[in-house]
From TrEMBL:
Keywords noted in UniProt: ATP-binding, Kinase, Nucleotide-binding, Transferase
Molecular-function GO terms, alphabetical: ATP binding; deoxynucleoside kinase activity
SUPFAM superfamilies noted in UniProt: P-loop containing nucleoside triphosphate hydrolases
Protein name in the entry: Deoxynucleoside kinase
Signal peptide extent: none
One Pfam family linked to the record: dNK
Protein source organism: Gracilibacillus oryzae
Similarity annotation: Belongs to the DCK/DGK family.
Chain ranges of the Deoxynucleoside kinase domain: 23-216
Keyword Secreted: no
Length: 223
């Protein structure tokens, strides 16, 4: 499984641009990506690129009919995330809430689960590989690692009906794919932070711990 993701990431440019300090944040639904992005924006002065979920015309429909909407949703996300990378590469300091690098996780999971056809997946994969050739690697990829149980608790607390109505098996599959993806990830420096016991949205000490961890990692990079 990991070999698939390893091959997908081979097409990324080998070196990042000289003028860009790009951080990408990834993790399953409920891990705290948007919250961490907001912290990095406020405390480290980065420009945010938010995940395109608020004005997404397909997302809520997808959760209730995945076979019908999986392909158009993934193409929508892929295109939006490619635009984010293009725009972020023009900015000195950018932070992305999810990115094109991990977009393939969802497409593969949906194909393996029979919710995206083989033909649709092959079209998606061709688009992904064509786009990724024009993407430079981030300076740092942050992976927010979280257990299935804690992710589900946070999803329930957040209260989006289409997420709450989704069966546990879907989130279990997603968590498994994320684990496999980040075992294979090699495109850039990677920082894994387990967030099961962290509440950096409301707990100042957790917030400071996460910020300090990120700063220390950035200091080790060849900038």
């Amino acid at each position: 499984m990991g070999n698939f993701y390893h091959e997908c990431l081979k097409g990324i440019k080998k070196a990042k641009g000289d003028n860009t300090e790009m951080i990408t944040i990834d993790g399953v639904v409920g891990a705290g990506k948007t919250t961490l992005m907001d912290i990095i924006v406020k405390d480290l002065g980065y420009t945010p690129f938010e995940e395109p979920v608020v004005n997404n015309p397909i997302l809520d429909k997808f959760y209730y009919d995945r076979e019908r909407y999986s392909f158009p949703l993934q193409v929508f996300f892929l295109n939006e995330r490619f635009n984010h990378i293009k725009n972020a590469s023009k900015i000195k300091k950018a932070v992305l809430d999810r990115s094109i690098y991990g977009d393939v996780i969802f497409a593969k999971m949906l194909k393996d689960g029979g919710e995206m056809s083989e033909e649709e997946f092959n079209i998606y994969l061709s688009l992904f590989k064509n786009m990724i050739e024009h993407c430079e690697p981030p300076e740092l990829m942050i992976y927010l690692e979280i257990s299935l149980e804690e992710a589900v608790r946070r999803i329930t607390r957040r209260g989006r009906s289409y997420e709450i109505d989704t069966e546990i098996a879907y989130w279990e599959r997603l968590n498994k794919e994320y684990t496999e993806y980040f075992q294979a990830y090699h495109a850039s420096p990677l920082l894994k932070i387990n967030v099961d016991q962290l509440n950096f949205e409301n707990n100042p000490s957790d917030r400071e711990y996460v910020l300090t961890t990120i700063k220390k990692k950035l200091q080790t990079l060849d900038r």
